[in-house]
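Retry 2 of 3 after timeout on previous attempt. Resubmitting structure tokens to design endpoint.
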């Protein structure tokens, strides 16, 4: 495998080829906003990663179909907060805290790592795969110290791709809390059917109302219909009801096996698919939102806990603790499911 280091000065408004092989083409450029971008393409499609900005996955397109949510963002923005550049296909949510902060939480929405300013970035290329990877070191005086190494990997002839993350506690003396969610913002597809390798009833409607959600009478009535079992929850057939967002949780996924698969079957014949291990991610979140500005059907967001903030995870006993020197790794496979 070849490693090709990336430098910020390589990027300009003009698209340049960074690596090329019989199956893969890797290109880079800089957005007008100043954000660097790398696109890895194979014979089925492409994945676009922001190598120095949280290694955010800005877009994923296969078989001519973009899988990314619709939003008001025409390009990524340089920011330390994910809500200031919220138009991507996927990002790493966490890592010291994750999700929507509760009233007593002090962390930003979706944590400090989502828009991390990376120390270094590189490509990994061989005959079978091509990946964007990098390293970010978080260090705080009188605080935590960790290293995070994500990777987004595309394989030969595949429309599914891998998302990996390794987190190491670099402190020699201090245990580190860890909350992580692989936040995959799939495009909303009207009429799509969602299914998974879980029993019926595994997903339950969220009870809490985060600060960014303002309930309306219609939204409240729809939530009550879901709880009463009179609203169908496996088909995207009520776009007018998903504003504000409708969120579901499935907990203790290890009860249902280790290797899990979640699907969204679109009416155009495309089946979006996400696979992961319940050992890595014991909690799944489903996030639906549809309005004039943002539309997404995030049919599964794999997580170590519910994305309801640090203190909620601590109270629920789902906060991961990394001992000094310990590393925790995560793996997700996602994209368009292969035909049988």
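Retry 2 succeeded. Sequence:
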């Amino acid at each position: 495998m070849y490693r090709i280091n990336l430098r910020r000065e390589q990027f300009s408004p003009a698209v340049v080829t960074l690596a090329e092989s019989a199956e893969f083409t890797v290109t880079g450029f800089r957005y007008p906003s100043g954000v660097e971008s790398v696109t890895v393409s194979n014979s089925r499609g492409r994945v676009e990663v922001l190598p120095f900005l949280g290694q955010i996955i800005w877009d994923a397109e296969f078989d001519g179909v973009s899988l990314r949510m619709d939003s008001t963002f025409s390009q990524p923005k340089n920011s330390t907060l994910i809500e200031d550049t919220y138009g991507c296909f996927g990002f790493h949510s966490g890592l010291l805290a994750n999700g929507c902060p509760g009233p007593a939480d002090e962390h930003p929405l979706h944590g400090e790592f989502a828009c991390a300013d990376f120390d270094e970035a590189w490509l990994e290329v061989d005959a079978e795969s091509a990946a964007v990877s990098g390293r970010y070191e978080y260090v705080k005086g009188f605080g935590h110290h960790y290293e995070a190494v994500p990777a987004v990997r595309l394989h030969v002839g595949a429309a599914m791709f891998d998302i990996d993350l390794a987190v190491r506690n670099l402190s020699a003396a201090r245990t580190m809390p860890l909350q992580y969610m692989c936040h995959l913002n799939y495009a909303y597809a009207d009429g799509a059917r969602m299914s998974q390798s879980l029993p019926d009833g595994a997903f339950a409607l969220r009870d809490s109302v985060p600060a960014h959600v303002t309930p309306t009478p219609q939204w409240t009535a729809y939530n009550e219909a879901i709880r009463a079992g009179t609203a169908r929850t496996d088909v995207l057939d009520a776009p007018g009801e998903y504003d504000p967002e409708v969120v579901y949780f499935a907990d203790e996924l290890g009860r249902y096996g280790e290797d899990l698969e979640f699907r969204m079957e679109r009416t155009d014949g495309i089946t979006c698919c996400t696979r992961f291990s319940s050992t890595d991610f014991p909690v799944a979140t489903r996030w639906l939102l549809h309005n004039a500005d943002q539309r997404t059907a995030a049919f599964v967001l794999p997580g170590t806990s519910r994305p309801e903030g640090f203190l909620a995870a601590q109270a629920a006993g789902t906060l991961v603790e990394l001992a000094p020197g310990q590393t925790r790794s995560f793996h997700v496979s996602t994209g368009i499911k292969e035909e049988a």
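Attempt log closed. The first helix runs from residue 217 to 228.
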